[in-house]
Amino acid sequence: MTINSEILASLIFLFFGVTAIVFGAGFGFGTPRALGAGAMPVLVGGALCILGGVQFLRALRANGNFPAAFSRSEIRPLVFILSAVFAFATLILPVGLVPALALLIAIAWFSEKGGRHRELVGAMVVVIVVMIAIFNFGLGLPIRLFAWGF
Amino acid sequence: MDFLSLLAMGLQVALDPVNLLYCLMGVTLGTAIGVLPGVGPIITIALLLPLTFGLPTEASIILLAGIYYGAAYGGSTTSILVNLPGEASSAVTCIDGHQMAKQGRAGSALAVAALGSFFAGTVGTLLIALAGPPLAAIAMRFGAAEYASLVLAALLMVAAMTRGGVIKGIGVALLGIVFGLAGSDVLSGAFRFTFGIPELRDGIDFAVLAVGLFAIAEIISNLAGSAQSTMSTNKIGRLWPTRDDFRRAWPAVLRGTGIGALLGVLPGAGLAMSSFSAYMVEKSVSKEPERFGVGAIEGVAAPESANNAASQTGFIPTLLLAIPGSPVMALMLGAFMIHGVAPGPRMMTDHAPLFWGLIASMWIGNLFLVILNLPLIGLWVKLLKVPYHWLYVFVLAFACVGVFTMGSSSFQLYALVFFGVLGYLLKAAGLSPALFILGFILGPMFEENFRRALSISRGNAMTFIERPISLTFVVLGLLVVALTATAFVRRGREEATDD
Asked: Looking at the complex, does the CB of residue A65 fall below 8 Å from at least one CB of chain B?
């Protein structure tokens, strides 16, 4: 069975609903006069579970009438864009802004199919220069450009 | 202080050179992103949120507001010239605006759109100034029970208006509330959903959440469906409307302004619905409805005035009640909170220079927009030639550096990846990320007032329906949900919602 968007919505509701109840219960519900920190999570989580259940039944009854939630064309940009951000996150402190940005742009560039590899270097230079201009000079934020020196 | 001296104080703040510069930057940027398809005010405001940390409060709010109403302006340009709405709120302008362009009357359509928007913006700004004091006086009398019911009603109304049905709408708002609960509990100080991570003790960072849900997830879905359309630009023609155009346009501008101003205040209606409604009204009151769709100037004047009026009056509930009626307003509210300013009935007195300065700046900004849009129109159209692969690497780089500068740690960036995935999942499930944000902002407000109201009434839940104002809100919210569930407004809604 392919997961369609209606089923996916119900699963998201159920997952976070259950999570909210399980953890929320531990924070203490309190009394109606003095609701505890756990009251809201449990109430909202409960409502989410109910809505998720209703949504799930509705989706099952009308099975097959909805488009699939995920499409193949999304895999490439999803993987490349998220890896680009992840790489930037890992590198920014150890190596500094310029190399981290260069890698971010290089990875993100490949989330679209097709060539234009020559443009990549141009994009790197332009984006890095603009970022330094805005953040370092424009806003005066002290970001290290390279891990060594500066 | 009387009304005039308050406005004078506002003008003083708005005319401060620094603030004037940020206002100009805001409306310029707003026009640019309004023109560009694929980048809207939500993404832009989300991206700039981390930056505003370093700016003075007045300057950053004036900047962000400028982007918001500037985008409503810029969207019309591409609708008319290339039949491509830069924003959802300008989609309806395509119908007659582009027909006019094809007939060589683009200049006329653009001028009417700009002048109508300026008029509507001025009226909208004036309405905020006039409605402010009396509304604040009423809201001052709200207790915790009234506030809790008001938040509930606003959430229900927005959820009901969202594409995809009431269940998914309410569900995704609740999901936002769950994420809003993370961090330390306001009343007891207990840490909730922090999973032992110290960075989460102050709650999930609003700017990171917004950038992840909107910018990152939006880039991914834009790239997946990258059907690049080729655009042909029509000649603009003479830039001044004919006498006949003027005669037909001005009543449409008046009606559009009225409709927009009214719908802008209502939660959930949004800019797109107001321009759509204005167009429908115009068509139905016209003596020659057959002219619509083949280049009627009224079909440009009314919706463009309406969305601009709505973009201004949308500030009324946000500023005075702290209840944002649309996702962009939720972001604006977030921006206020980042700066430690709590919007609400006391804002007009506690932060008078900010409140009146913002209002005055919006009027000045609207003036800037007319100047920016009419003579420089050719420049904006050139922006359409920027290829998307340059645009998205820039947005991505900006997002990452901006988020990093907030805490100078990698944690926020990993959180950005998490919210990018979440935003992608929400989109795949057909759930509105905008409603998620609204729930995230309003959730803590609801919880605090709900618990406080219950402790005041000694645990008696009847307090929410025994107090007349509170009861009104509860009934209103439930009524809208019931009406939507019976498909009463479904038809109009599918064609006209901001997402």
From this structure: no
Q: Largest alpha-carbon pair distance within chain B?
A: 70
Cβ(B195)–Cβ(B418) below 8 Å: no
Tell me which residue has tokens 């094809």.
B102
Around Cβ B194, how many Cβ atoms within 10 Å?
17
Q: Do B459 and A31 touch (CB under 8 A)?
A: yes
Q: Which residues of A touch B53 (CB under 8 A)?
A: none
How many CB atoms lie under 10 A from the CB of residue B91?
A: 20
Helical H segments across B84-229, by residue range: 93-102, 106-140, 144-161, 166-181, 206-210, 217-224
CA–CA gap between residue B310 and residue B428 (Å, rounded): 30
Please judge whether B188 and A54 are an interchain contact, meaning their C-beta atoms are less than 8 angstroms apart.
Answer: no
Locate the chain A residue with the closest alpha carbon to B420. Answer: A82
Q: How many domains is chain B built from?
A: 1
Query: Which residues of chain A, if any, have pLDDT below 50?
Result: 150
Closest residue in chain B to residue A54, using alpha carbons only: B167
Tell me which residue in A71, A85, A90 faces B416 most closely, judged by beta carbons. Answer: A85
- Residue given tokens 């003027």 in the structure block: B246
Short-list B308, B314, B289, CA closest to B299? B289
Give the structural domain span for B452.
3-495
Check A127 against B389: CB less than 8 A apart: no
**Beta-carbon count within 10 A of A77 CB:** 24
Distance of CA B149 to the CA centre of its chain: 23
Per-residue model confidence (pLDDT) at position A15:
94
Section B361-368 average pLDDT: 88
Mean pLDDT score, B284-296 = 80
Q: Quickly list DSSP for A27-81.
A: T--B-SSSB-TTHHHHHHHHHHHHHHHHHHHHHHHTTTSS-BS--GGGHHHHHHH
